[in-house]
Design goal:
Length: 273
């Protein structure tokens, strides 16, 4: 029974992501990008009227199709639902990139089984590259229907690592100090600006690992199951599970090398871990 409930929600999540993509493309096609932009926690933490419109579209569809499911969205918070499933939605992950037209932003939708406190499926739609990443518990990870898997690289010194930075200046200062010490110890660093895409890049082998502090559940929950179903490992730093303090995702082989390095430097610079 539950397998069908998950499969139905995965099918719906794909359709909702495509509908959100259509809305986004309708707002940025044509001669001028007319975006209403506000700021949230700082002048660098931005949100647009398109973020809000996409979340309203997704939430309306979820409420209509799964009236008992809970909805947790970046822009409108928690809504409804007394049933066992919760939808965790980021209407545009990588909002800064979206505003600038930098081609790295995604719609991220995860479905949680609240009885088991587990993500049971997730989709991440890379809008600029038109790639749909997806995974369901125990069913593998895919991009556009093609099976994906993490790399088999075993040395951190040969690994390509993604990361990201928070919005507060004092947090960024410590994160910058950390990355300056990590950089000489790895192949190179990449900063895409959308956690859900960083995670999908680990899942499909475009990165060997990724770490970031300060993420919200809607940033990482869909990407995390996609990494795990692609054979990778996702943890926190000091915590076993990813969260606001730290999210670390790798091919599994380099996980403890990266985790130990991140923890030691976070302690040195007083950063969250
Ligand atoms: C973004 C994350 C990214 C992080 C950015 C920002 P948003 O989410 O996906 O990894 O580095 O600072 O938080 O705010 O664009 O949805």
């Amino acid at each position: 029974m539950q397998e069908n409930e998950v499969a139905t929600r995965l099918d719906a999540a794909r359709a909702y992501a495509r509908a959100g993509q259509e809305l986004i493309l309708s707002r940025i096609s044509g001669p001028a990008r007319s975006l209403g932009v506000d700021t949230k926690t700082s002048i660098t933490d931005m949100v647009t009227d398109v973020d809000r419109a996409v979340e309203k579209l997704l939430a309306g569809s979820i409420r209509e199709d799964f009236e008992h499911d809970k909805i947790v969205g970046e822009e409108f918070g928690d809504g409804g639902g007394d049933g066992p499933y919760a939808w965790v939605v980021d209407p545009i992950d990588g909002t800064t990139n979206f505003i600038y037209g930098f081609p790295a932003y995604a719609i991220s939708i995860a479905v949680r089984d609240l009885r088991r406190d587990t993500t049971v499926c997730g989709v991440v739609l890379d809008v600029p590259r038109d790639r749909l990443y997806e995974a369901a518990e125990g069913k593998g990870a895919y991009v556009d229907g093609r099976r994906i898997s993490v790399t088999s690289r075993s040395r951190l010194a040969e690994s390509l690592i993604g990361t990201g930075f928070g919005y507060a200046a004092e947090v960024r200062r410590a994160q910058g100090a950390m990355v300056s010490e990590i950089l000489p110890l790895i192949r190179d660093i990449r900063r895409a600006g959308a956690a859900s895409l960083d995670l999908c890049m680990v899942a499909c082998g475009e990165l060997d690992g990724y770490y970031e502090s300060g993420l919200w559940p809607w940033d990482f929950m869909a990407g995390a199951i996609i990494v795990e179903e692609a054979g990778g490992t996702v943890t926190g730093g000091l915590e076993p599970t990813p969260g606001a303090a730290m999210t670390i995702a790798t091919n599994g082989i380099i996980h403890e090398q990266l985790r130990e390095l991140v923890l030691s430097l976070a302690a040195k610079y007083g950063a969250r871990s």
